[in-house]
Amino acid sequence: MGTTAADPAVLLTDLRVLVLAGGLSYERDVSLRSGRRVLDALRAVGVEAELRDADVALLPSLVADPPDAVVIALHGATGEDGSLRGVLDLCNVPYVGCDARSSRLAWDKPSAKAVLREAGIPTPDWVALPHDRFSELGAVAVLDRIVDRLGLPLMVKPAQGGSGLGAAVVRDGPALPAAMVGCFAYDSTALVERYLPGTDVAVSVIDLGEGPQALPAVEIVPRNGVYDYAARYTAGRTTWHTPARLDTEVAEAVATVAVAAHTALGLRDLSRVDLIVDADHQPHVLGVNVAPGMTETSLLPLAAQAASLDFGRMIGTLVSRAVAGAT
């Protein structure tokens, strides 16, 4: 990895940074935990940082007293669908992370998977099914056809969403309708994809000035076999191995695919690429997150620690690069 020293033209101690966290999504609590950790990390390296929610007071504040930069620790639609980034662009406030267009693309899983597939990056076969079409065409007939086409087991998850909310593994046909209903509680469109057994890994991609590079992969071993919301954020529900227990050649392939996915989606600064390594040791991209969690059990901080990167200096470097890029 490259140095985490900030751009000498942008001194961290001279910056005032706004950390945005909270929001109104299902992931509000996780976002607040991420935001507080980022806040503490920035303050530890001498940055004047403030934690703010994304509410009606935000825009007037940005206009009246714009910060030098924003770190987006908002999860769910508010932080990841591109809309907030578009508002920050309107206010000429620099921020860490990808632009609005790339954020929208990565947020919508079917669209992102289509881009990855076009770029030759492996991702499981899928079908995206809006709730209205599901009802209009007849639930039973549609589900039967999905099973015929994709086989079993299947992974059902919201087309737009994160933290494992609304996601379920379906191992037999009779369980599929309930999984669809659970998914539609979180999004109007369900993504149904072929479930690939294998090793779950997450690769964080960071650009500290030398181009995007993969941090050590984190292997995810949930106690109940499914990396759902409880497994992500409840102590004792999941074991993480950093670096992942992969052969050197496989680890290199995973890193290469992760950086390729980050690049294909037009991302910048940081992302987290979720993958499955199948029985033939081939990596497949499951999704890409443009606002990775920063909590005590989140994967990007674990990967940074494995790479011997100081978390505060790493975030500070991304902030300084955002400020330098806006001048």
UniProtKB/TrEMBL annotation:
Which residues act catalytically here? 27, 163, 298
Species in which this protein is naturally found: Salinispora arenicola
Protein name listed in UniProt: D-alanine--D-alanine ligase
Pfam families given in the database record: Dala_Dala_lig_C, Dala_Dala_lig_N
NCBIfam families assigned: PRK01372.1 (NF002378)
Lineage: superkingdom: Bacteria
Would you identify the family this protein belongs to, as annotated? Belongs to the D-alanine--D-alanine ligase family.
- Cellular component terms per the entry's GO annotation: cytoplasm
Query: Could you say which EC number(s) this protein's record lists?
Result: 6.3.2.4
* Binding annotation for Mg(2+) 2: 289
